[in-house]
Please model this.
Amino acid sequence: MTDTDDLACIELVELVTDYLEDALEPDVRARFEQHLPSCPGCEEHLEQVRRTIQVLGALPQDERLSPQTRARLLDAFREWRAHPQPEA
Amino acid sequence: MTAVAPVLRDERGFSEALDRWSPSLLGLARSFAPDVATAQRMVERGWTSALRSGHLDDPGRPVRLAVVRAMAVSAQPEADLALAAGQRALCLAIRSSGVVVLPGQRDRRAATAVGATLPVTPALGDLDLLAPPLRLVLLLVDAHRWPAQEVEELLEVRPAALRAILGHSRRALLAAVQLRGASA
Model:
């Protein structure tokens, strides 16, 4: 961690998401990448954010509507098809 | 002839939409509902409200966006208190996400935490450590991979603001996990 670089650590921390989204201007991106090798704290922070995104992206999405809920929704759809006026 | 949204074209289209979008809708509802059964009712109410209010009619409008909005709105005083609580929690999270942090606003507490960084890897359950608006953003973007444009529309924020909120939410999660690790 250093505060003497062109890009301060506090700035880098706030730019990490833009960096990972490829939303930084080229010159800022260059400064960002120039800062990393000399600053283990910021490198670690970047890696932690990457791991965080990976972990959250692994959220299991295996929940399903219960059969009863699904059946009620299909009934609602049939009813709506028979009388398709939007509610006021 | 008016174009009909695929989700409404026939029962098969609606059934396919239910199967495609309900898992992520349930995952979102679970984070704001007091229990699993209430999450099912939130999603059911969201689908029926979106259907009956005409919010699924527009072929250009993302289906899940319409349903999530409907999930967060109670059309009438709700006798089901658990359902009302879940709807209100989601509604507040959506409304307040956009004002959590402004672009350019410095987040010094999270930033200075980097100086004493501990190796941490958050687990999915750690999302519960976050305030609801921050949890919502991470669920939508990182967990459920909503396209940024849909999240911006839901939260009514611009792209730069969403990135700022997202960065703040990720830092807050890391800080919360570090704090938990340090106090363990």
Residues 9-57 of chain A form one domain.
